[in-house]
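Let's practice the habit of predicting before peeking. Look at the sequence and jot down your guess about where helices and strands might fall. Then scroll down.
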Amino acid sequence: MRHSFILLIILSFVASIGANAQREVKMQVGDSTEVLKRYVFMFLNDGPKRDQDSATLVRIQEGHMKHIGEMAQTGKMVVAGPFEDAGKYRGILIFDVDSISQAIRMESTDPGVVSGRFEMQAFFWWTMKGSKLP
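Done guessing? Here is the structure:
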């Protein structure tokens, strides 16, 4: 029940803020203070050019994985991974950066994007600060 209440507050809060808002916000929820943090959530979707031969696909994938690793080392890309059986949606990236344009700049040199195999779609995403996957 408390999680539903917190989610409702978060959704109300996110709906009321602008694109240029600060990246962390404290909220009073009952007797506790919750901190929300803003990230950039990016889908990698099917791009317009998906007809590469198998040797080219191997090179693109190797370059893509190298690029992901390099971004992870900067600490600005915090989560990445592919989807399974998700149609046009191929994977996600979550960036800890100030702007959508900064995340797009970082990902725009990915060989999968450069080749046209992937397209980027990015949004601001808010979550409780310190949230993590198990």
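How did you do? The mean pLDDT is 87.
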